[in-house]
TrEMBL record:
Coiled coil: none annotated. SUPFAM superfamilies: Actin-like ATPase domain (SSF53067). This is Xylose repressor. PANTHER family: BIFUNCTIONAL UDP-N-ACETYLGLUCOSAMINE 2-EPIMERASE_N-ACETYLMANNOSAMINE KINASE, ROK (REPRESSOR, ORF, KINASE) FAMILY. It comes from gut metagenome. Transmembrane segments: none annotated. InterPro entries: ATPase_NBD, ROK, ROK_cs.
């Protein structure tokens, strides 16, 4: 996804980029000086598994307190169901407990874009939590561009604006002034395009 955006998406000459993929899980892609950074074993970018919360929620990785447990598509799904069960109202309230037909993340995104107040509120809360942690990444990497991609990026400004607000609040001003935060241009095509472009690049390298 990162390489797709770099080659065919919203990148316009920038060489230092973070791509934040907010889908069911949470991860980042890193480009430094125009090259993808993968780490020694290819496992860089496990942003969702930063220990960010003092909670008892078990992450998919088996640990507790991961950022992903409160700021991801799976977190959005869980929190919405919890809050409806606690008595809050949503246009999805009648969908949640239908047997053998679980609520999907795509349905929640659609509800956000239909201006469902509860879904919007949860997405904005997730954006604030993410922005606080992205602020730390900006302090470390000093990127020119931070691209917000993945399924939750389809909520547009509902996720982008809280991220920007938190970044301004929690990152160093002398660093964040260099960083532009934007939504993915390629949306759900970024992964496919990136894989194709990377395969082509490696093919020519081997000739």
């Amino acid at each position: 996804m990162t390489y797709g955006e770099y080659m065919k998406g919203c990148v316009n000459g920038e060489k230092n980029i973070l791509f934040v993929n907010i889908s069911w899980g949470l991860g980042i892609g890193i480009i430094i000086d125009g090259k993808i950074y993968t780490g020694k074993s290819g496992f860089s970018g496990e942003f969702g598994h930063i220990n960010a919360f003092d909670n008892e929620i078990i992450c998919h990785c088996g640990k507790k307190g991961c950022l992903e447990t409160e700021a991801s598509g799976s977190a959005l799904h869980r929190i919405l169901i919890e809050r409806v069960h606690e008595g809050e109202s949503s246009i999805l309230s009648n969908r949640i407990d239908i047997p053998n037909h679980p609520l999907t993340l795509d349905e929640i995104i659609a509800a956000v874009n239909k201006e469902d107040p509860l879904c919007i509120e949860i997405v904005e809360e997730i954006g604030q939590k993410l922005g606080r942690q992205i602020a730390g990444l900006i302090n470390i990497f000093n990127p020119e561009l931070v691209i917000i991609g993945g399924t939750l990026s389809l909520t547009g400004d509902y996720i982008i604006q809280p991220i920007k607000t938190a970044v301004r609040k929690y990152s160093l001003n002398l660093v964040n002034k260099d960083s532009v935060i934007i939504a993915s241009k390629l949306k759900d095509k970024a992964g496919l395009i990136g894989a194709c472009m990377l395969a082509r690049s490696r093919m020519f390298e081997s000739i």
